[in-house]
Design goal:
- Helices cover 36% and strands 14% of the residues.
- It is of the alpha/beta class.
- A hairpin with a 4-residue loop joins β5 and β6.
């Protein structure tokens, strides 16, 4: 891990100095003379101040990366010998790293790009009487997730407040290169896009493919995400939903099965740097 992070030369995570860094008498610890910081390879990562051994962290990353539908905190707790509460915190920190932007994620999707939405949350009719939201007819309490997928390429997905014109077209402009081919269903929020060549498939008329127009690729993302929802996690809290979306997006991008397993784990380790979240912040209401 030190070799991957520092390329053989320990670097201070505080002042970025590489000069005169020396080892402490405690294994794995280094001191920076420039700022007097004692640090390890964990410092400045999601693993900072964690009491979980590094071998268990790495095995957890392996399991999360290679489990297509995810792994529950209960299962992980049994696998690596920690409590369920600790396993849940560990997994949320890894998911936080999955959502860290890199140069590839900051680049635009291009070519033929498909866009679609999906929704998570229980039905109003299934709620206990005391928990009904009573938002009125035609209003749903479900949380919307908007996704875009470059055909045979990467995925970008995010939780959105609503699926109106302003929100979805703003996300399209931020993620897709101008001049690309955009394939969507007949949802009205996509009407009027001018910077893309817009192709529409009419699902309400039982039309699923119209020439090169279809949304099968992005819908396959929702299929895997919902298999994880129903089969592994059983429920996504709205507060943490983006992290779960990031987890599945990572497995379809840098963590794709077409890459060697160690390459996928290396990609995840790279994303752990500079992305720390505390238990207090994670559980804050």
């Amino acid at each position: 891990m030190e070799l991957k992070r520092w390329d053989g030369k320990p670097t201070c995570p505080s002042c970025s100095s590489k000069e005169q860094i020396y080892k402490r008498h405690i294994a794995g610890y280094y001191r920076c003379p420039a700022c007097n910081l004692d640090f390890t390879v964990r410092t400045g990562t999601i693993m900072e101040r964690s009491h979980i051994p590094l071998d268990k962290w790495l095995y957890a990353m392996y399991l999360l990366t290679t489990s297509r539908k995810g792994i529950s905190s209960l299962q992980l707790a049994k696998e690596i010998g920690i409590t369920q509460k600790t396993a849940w915190f560990l997994l949320q920190r890894i998911r936080e790293a999955c959502g860290k932007s890199n140069d590839k994620q900051n680049s635009f999707l291009a070519g033929i790009v498909e866009a679609d939405e999906c929704y998570f949350g229980g039905k109003e009719a299934n709620r206990h009487e005391s928990k009904k939201l009573r938002l009125g007819p035609g209003v749903t309490s479900k949380i919307a997730v908007f996704g875009m997928r470059e055909r045979s390429g990467d995925v970008k997905a995010m939780v959105v407040g609503n699926t109106g014109v302003a929100v979805l077209q703003t996300e399209l402009n931020k993620a897709i290169a101008s001049g690309s081919v955009l394939c969507t269903d007949e949802h009205g929020a996509y009407r009027g896009v001018k910077q893309f060549h817009h192709l529409v498939v009419n699902h309400s008329a039982k039309e699923f493919v119209n020439g090169m127009a279809h949304t099968n690729s992005i819908e396959s993302v929702w299929a895997v995400l919902k298999r994880g929802f129903y089969g592994t996690y059983h429920s996504f809290s709205g507060k943490h939903l983006q992290r779960y979306v990031d987890e599945f997006s990572f497995r379809l991008n840098e963590g794709n099965v077409k890459h060697h397993t160690m390459t996928r784990i290396d990609s995840l380790l790279t994303k752990t740097v500079g992305k720390r979240i505390t238990y207090k912040r994670l559980t804050k209401t």
